[in-house]
Amino acid sequence: MIKNRRLAAVAMLALTLGACAGPAIPYATPPKSPSSTAPVASPRPVQNNSLIGRNANAALGLFGKPRLDVAEGSGRKLQFAGTPCILDVYYYAPKQGADPLATHVDARTPDGRDANVPSCIEALRR
Q1: What distance in Å separates the CA atoms of residue 64 and residue 87, rounded to the nearest whole number?
Q2: Which of 37, 81, 97, 123 could form a Cys-Cys staple with 86, CB 3.0–4.6 A?
Q3: Residue 1 and residue 89: Cα distance in Å, rounded?
Q4: According to the 3-state scheme, what is the secondary structure of the chain?
Q5: Global pTM?
Q6: How crowded is the C-beta side of 96, counted as CA atoms within 13 Å?
Q7: Are 76 and 70 in contact (CB under 8 A)?
Q8: pLDDT tens digit at each of 126 positions of the chain
Q9: Strand pairing of 75-81 and 68-72?
Q10: Any bridge partners for residue 69, and if so which?
């Protein structure tokens, strides 16, 4: 009789613990895709330097051939580099069909520290 009680207790414990377990393999939920009909808002310029609001030809005229010319989604990044600093200029079209304009500029030293953007622009001018 005692064996049956122990067996019944072990069986009840196993059933109780089994009820707490979820599915053995979790199901991944697919990522929500952005609506292709929604307009893409371009970033608004928040900086004030000589490149903001100008097209890529202005930077190419100032600095010559870029070290990098990368398309990033609906934007474009030009990177210019020299001994004193590295300059990244980001271009986005203010509205669909318009010419992309510089909306953001980053400057850093070759070792990765932040640099002053206007000083870097002047240092890289040819």
Answers
A1: 13
A2: 81
A3: 83
A4: CHHHHHHHHHHHHHHHHHHHCCCCCCCCCCCCCCCCCCCCCCCCCCCCCCCCCCCHHHHHHHHCCCCEEEEECCEEEEEEECCCCEEEEEEECCCCCCCCEEEEEEEECCCCCECCHHHHHHHHCC
A5: 0.63
A6: 5
A7: yes
A8: 556 777 777 777 666 666 555 555 656 666 666 555 455 555 555 667 889 999 999 999 999 999 999 998 889 999 999 999 999 999 999 888 899 999 999 999 999 999 999 999 999 997
A9: antiparallel
A10: 78
Residue 105 in tokens: 């500029």
Take residue 6 and report the two structure tokens written for it: 């122990």
Of 76, 80, 120, 66, nearest in space to 99 by CA: 76
Structural contact between residues 117 and 49, judged by C-beta atoms closer than 8 angstroms: yes
